[in-house]
Amino acid sequence: MLAGCATTAQGTFTQSLLAAESAADVAVTTTTTLLQSGQITSSQAAKVMTVTDGVNATLTLANNTYNAGGIATAQTQIATAASILVTLQSCLSASAAKQSIDTCLAPLVSK
Prior knowledge:
By secondary structure, the chain is mainly alpha-helical.
C-alpha cells in the first residue's frame, strides 16, 4: 500500500492508482477474450500488450514518484495512464463490435 492519501479530483492517489491498475488488468483480460474468440489477431493482441506494459510501467513510476514526494508529478502520470486506458478500452470495444482495431491502436503503440 502507498503511504499517505493525497486527494485528487477522483479521490485519493491510492484509489486512482488502484483504479488504473484494475483497468489495465481488464484490458488484458478483454484482449485475451477477443484473441481466443478470433476477433483480433495475435499481432493485434501483442500491440495491446505493448500498450498495457507501458501503462503498467507508468503506474509503477507514478507510485515511486509519489512515495518520493512528487505528488503533483505522480498525479499527472496517473492521469496520462488513465487517458491511455480510456482510449485502449475504446479500441477494444470497437474490435468487439467487429471494427478494425489497428487504426485505433496506431497512436497508442507509437507513444
